[in-house]
Structures are given as C-alpha cells and as structure tokens.
Specification:
Layout: H1 7-11, H2 16-25, H3 33-53, E1 63-67, E2 73-75, H4 76-89, E3 95-100, E4 107-108, E5 117-125, E6 136-144, E7 163-171, E8 175-180, E9 187-193, E10 198-203, E11 214-216, H5 227-236, E12 248-249, H6 255-265, E13 268-271, E14 282-283, H7 284-297, E15 301-303, E16 320-321, E17 323-326, H8 328-338
Parallel strand pairs: 3-5, 11-12, 11-13
Antiparallel strand pairs: 1-2, 3-4, 5-6, 6-7, 7-8, 8-9, 9-10, 13-17, 14-16, 15-17
Helix pairs in contact: 2-3, 3-4, 5-8
Length: about 350
C-alpha cells in the first residue's frame, strides 16, 4: 500500500461515489450503467453495516432454523443481508440477475436488455462468527451478461478472468469496502464514516507484498490433509532464520478477515482440499473468484494449489474449490510442494 502523502493526502477526502464517477469520466465509451451498479452495491453495504452494528439489539442474532443450499444452518443476519442485496440490486434496472450463496438457483430481476450485468455474492461471509462479534463480510463479483437472449446460468458460469469488477466489505472495528475493476485499475479501499454516511478513500492502490511473514490455515483439519500440504505446513513452521521462518500463524475463520489481512500485509492464506472435502470447501463463484481477481490486481497470486483460480471453468453455481491466496513468492512455494517439486 502506498504512503499517505502528497497528492494522495488530498484524495483522502474522496468518496467512493466520486472515485467511481471519475473512473467513468476517464472512459469515453462509458454510459454510466456500470458506475450506477457499483454505487448500488456500496449502498447495500451501508444498509448491511447498519444491520450488523445493531444486530444484538434488533433480535437478528442466532439461527433461523433453515438450512441453505450449501447444507449449512442459516443465520438470521445471513438472511437479512441476502434480502438487502437482492432488493437493492433490483432497483435502477442495471442488474439482470443475481446468484447468491444463500439461493438454490439464480434470481432473475429483469428481462430488459438494457440491464447489462449480473452479480454474484456471498451476502455475509463468516456466519459462524456472527454471534461472537468477530469480523464478518460481504463478497461480490460483477460479470457482463451475454448480448443475446434471456439471462441463464451460463451468464454466471464463466471463468473469473471475465469479471468486470470484484470486491468485498469487511465489518470489523470499522467498515471497509475494497474494490477492483481490473488489474490495470488496481485495488482500492474505502472506509465508512457513519457520521456522514459515506465511504471515503483510505487505501489507494493497495499492493500485496511479494513475500510475507504470516500464514493462515485451519490446522484443525491437519489430519485430513494430503501429504504435500503436511510437508508445506511443517516447512513454513520450521526454523530457518535466513529464509524468514517460522512464519507466524494467523487464522480468524472468516475468509474476508483472513484474506483482508493477507492482501494488506502479505503472506499466505490456504484452504486446501482434504479427505473430507476432496474438491475443496470454498465456493468458486462467490468467494474464490472475487478474491483471486483482487489479489491478482494487487500483485498477488491465487491458485487452487496448482492451477490459477481465474482460469477455472465453472460447471455449476455452487461449485467448490481449494483456495490459496497471497504474496507471489509464498503462493509459488505452496504450489511447488503440491507439485512435489519440494519436500523440505
């Protein structure tokens, strides 16, 4: 992340809406539709952060008693966040359909051909941490729909490299929205100021360090890991001062929180496939692709252990994958272990 100095200090008073608008003005062919859609997502984030902040007082903690398509118990706040995003994206007529981790099928919003985009999202990542007041978040990706016919699942089942934008909102000690509209546009963070109701540019041009000093993985799954993952885990915790090891262990259990730290500080986040989840556990469309898009735009890497996440061709809406994110050198080392090019 660049230092807050010079011209950036002047830009610190820039709102997200103005930042997005300036991007539109810099594109001669822009119609304002994409800009308006991104502003709708940021408005939904404001509504959700309000819901999160008063969750304990508004009787929206705990489970609904329902089970979602993922086979997971639905939290009340999950359901509320999902409804908020669906309703907000249904306005203005720019989004044709959405796909949500909480819904079995895609949700059609309009058949108007002027609605050029589809949006996929995890409305509230980290559900198991809601009731214990640990950081949670919203993850989203925006894809341009096909030009012909009505929207179908095929409009969502495209490799992540075709995303038009991706981002996340983290609801922590402050609320922060992180957004990218492509590698050449970079990754930028905006912090919410509740006193004025606006997101302000706070982290301009985020760059993930090429090498970090921390690793993030659920070691409770160690008995189910494949041997290459076990060897990598032993290696990264081994003592080698010249190589900067051992790395420090950092694991929250909310993807948004762990990935956010890794994006800013460097290092590696890994959720590999294992005996219990041989295809991986995280969702390709709603979690892996948006974060892979962001990490590559910030100079980092994202793989399933061997292959680039953004090159995976999805075959179903709720497809799962292994996910490894982080600094280039750290992710490359993990991949070497997975390819058995390294054993120690």
């Amino acid at each position: 992340m660049s230092d807050v100095s010079g011209t950036q200090a002047v830009r610190m008073g820039m709102t997200l809406e103005t930042f997005i608008m300036e991007g539109m003005l810099g594109s001669p062919a822009a119609t304002g539709v994409f800009t308006s859609l991104l502003n709708q997502i940021s408005f939904a984030a404001k509504l959700v952060t309000s819901q999160v902040r008063r969750a304990g007082l508004a009787n929206v903690l705990g489970y609904t008693g329902e089970v979602n398509v993922q086979g997971e118990q639905v939290m009340k706040l999950d359901e509320l966040a999902n409804e908020t995003l669906v309703t907000t994206l249904g306005r203005r007529g720019h989004c044709a359909a959405i796909a949500s981790e909480e819904l079995d099928q895609i949700h059609h919003i309009t058949n108007d051909k002027r609605a050029r985009y589809v949006v996929m999202f995890d409305p509230l990542d980290g559900s198991s941490n809601i009731d214990v007041n640990i950081s949670i978040g919203t993850i989203f990706g925006v894809m341009r729909r096909s030009d012909d016919g009505d929207v179908t699942e095929a409009d969502f089942l495209k490799p992540g490299r075709e995303l038009a934008a991706a981002g996340y909102v983290i609801y922590g000690s402050s609320t922060m929205l992180v957004l990218s509209t492509g590698r050449e546009k970079g990754v930028h963070g905006f912090t919410y100021d509740p006193t004025v109701g606006e997101f302000f540019l706070s982290h301009e041009n985020i760059r993930t360090p090429k090498k970090g000093s921390t690793f993030s993985i659920n070691e409770g799954n160690a008995s189910r890991w494949e041997e290459p993952v076990k060897r990598w885990s032993d290696w990264i915790k081994g003592d080698n001062k010249a190589e900067g090891r051992p790395y420090g262990g950092r694991y929250v259990g909310t993807l948004v929180a762990d990935a956010h730290r890794t994006l800013l500080k460097g290092g590696i986040f890994a959720y590999p496939a294992d005996k219990k989840s041989p295809e991986g556990k995280l969702r390709l469309l709603y979690e892996a692709n948006p974060f892979a898009f962001l990490f590559e735009a910030s100079g980092g890497m994202a793989t399933n252990g061997t292959d680039r996440i953004l090159d995976i061709q999805p075959t179903k809406l709720h497809q799962r994958t292994a996910l490894v994110l982080g600094s280039q050198e750290d992710v490359a080392t993990f991949s070497q272990f997975m390819r058995k090019e390294r054993v120690s």
